[in-house]
Design goal:
Elements: H1 6-48, H2 68-78, E1 83-89, E2 94-99, H3 101-104, H4 116-126, E3 135-138, E4 141-143, H5 145-151, H6 154-164, H7 166-175, H8 203-210, H9 218-230, E5 233-235, H10 243-247, E6 253-256, H11 263-276, E7 290-298, E8 303-311, E9 319-326, H12 333-349, H13 352-355
Antiparallel strand pairs: 1-2, 1-9, 3-4, 5-6, 7-8, 8-9
């Protein structure tokens, strides 16, 4: 036994008593801090990820004026996910269906990589790139435009943006309908937003790869890709909702763009995206091809997954825009592409494209503008 002086034994007893009395308080304080930390953490999660991944996307819609077959296919394809599907006839600009109208008619979202076809049009017309131009994207890796679109390579499009500069990129973005209303007398539509100067985060390079600084709506994206699909006609989108509007429907041309010679390169890249690139999950079949472009990024409240596509390259039949939102890591362009693929397959299963005839009422085109000739270089329009 170790000998301890009497005064040391007394000190030990006193310390033991003090600790016994203090430990419950320490434990309570520690537990309180843990609860506060846990509660604070939960509050942060709710604040950052406030947009749900799952919801009834058709809940507040007024869908009685939609094409019932397209609308049902879109609702079934979305399932329980939080998203919107907009379907457009690219040969007339007629909106066939809008599922989740609140989301579709919102103020817009960052376009992510769906901005890249706009940048491709600009770069081709400006002579910055050709079909065969190879751009270095990694220490020992070069890509051409087709592969860059197929795999949505950011470095490639950042370089195109730097070579063209902000003014040129902005001019083509606005020419293709960004920053302005896409529809004709659609009261709920909002014009999105387009920056007046290079965004602080990444400048024109990030603007050209992710759409930094741009607020794009599903309607704007659908109108833009309808222009790619039909050979250069930017239609006003129309959403007829009364018997009279449906009976008297006539396509309205906003402007005709002289871009048909540029489109094969862009279409090849969008087809490659579906065949073996970022949009593989939208693949229909070898006989029924679709072309598309994905987009994946985040805004301040949620993750975003975009996909825009059209079916049948020779005779475009429908343009689909899919936008997904939520906090799950599954929310990305690939998921949006899968939703579009489900829509296409349902429409083909019911022989929709073979049997559908578009009733356009008066067939006369209402065209307020002459074709817009794109510049050879960066001259003004």
């Amino acid at each position: 036994m170790t000998y301890r002086p009497a005064y040391l034994r007394s000190v030990a007893v006193v310390l033991s008593l003090l600790l016994v009395g203090t430990l419950p308080e320490l434990s309570a304080a520690t537990a309180k801090r843990a609860v506060v930390h846990s509660t604070s953490k939960r509050r942060v999660v709710r604040r950052v990820y406030g947009v749900p991944t799952f919801m009834d996307s058709e809940k507040d819609d007024e869908g009685g004026y939609d094409d019932p077959i397209v609308r049902k296919a879109s609702i079934d394809a979305l399932g329980r996910y939080n998203g919107s599907v907009v379907a457009i006839d690219p040969s007339t600009g007629r909106i066939l269906s809008v599922v989740n109208q609140k989301l579709a008619f919102s103020a817009g979202f960052i376009p992510c990589s769906t901005i890249k076809p706009v940048i491709a049009v600009a770069a081709l017309q400006e002579g910055v790139v050709t079909r065969d131009t190879m751009i270095k994207v990694a220490p020992r890796k070069y890509l051409n435009l087709t592969e860059a679109l197929a795999h949505s390579n950011n470095v490639f499009f950042e370089e195109l943006g730097r070579r063209m500069g902000f003014d040129t990129v902005s001019r083509y973005g606005r020419l293709l309908g960004l920053g302005e209303l896409s529809g004709y007398q659609i009261s709920e539509e909002q014009p999105g937003g387009f920056p007046s100067e290079p965004p602080k985060n990444g400048g024109v390079a990030r603007m050209s790869s992710f759409g930094e600084g741009i607020q794009m709506t599903p309607l704007q994206l659908g109108a833009m890709v309808s222009t790619v699909a039909n050979g250069g006609t930017l239609y006003y989108l129309q959403y007829p909702r009364t018997p009279e509007e449906r009976q008297n429907f006539a396509p309205r041309i906003k402007r005709t763009l002289n871009i048909e010679s540029l489109l094969p390169e862009i279409r090849d890249g969008m087809l490659a995206a579906v065949l073996y690139g970022t949009a593989r999950r939208s693949f229909i079949s070898d006989d029924d091809e679709a072309l598309g472009k994905t987009g994946t990024c985040s805004d301040s409240t949620s993750r975003l997954g975009w996909f825009v596509s059209y079916a049948n390259q020779a005779h475009p039949k429908i343009v689909l825009v899919v936008l997904m939102r939520g906090q799950s890591s599954a929310i990305k362009g690939a998921m949006a592409a899968e939703v579009a693929g489900r829509v296409y397959r349902r429409l083909y299963d019911v022989n929709y494209f073979a049997e559908k005839t578009t009733e356009v009422g008066n067939s006369a085109m209402i065209s307020p503008a002459q074709p817009v000739q794109l510049p050879v270089k960066s001259s003004s329009f």
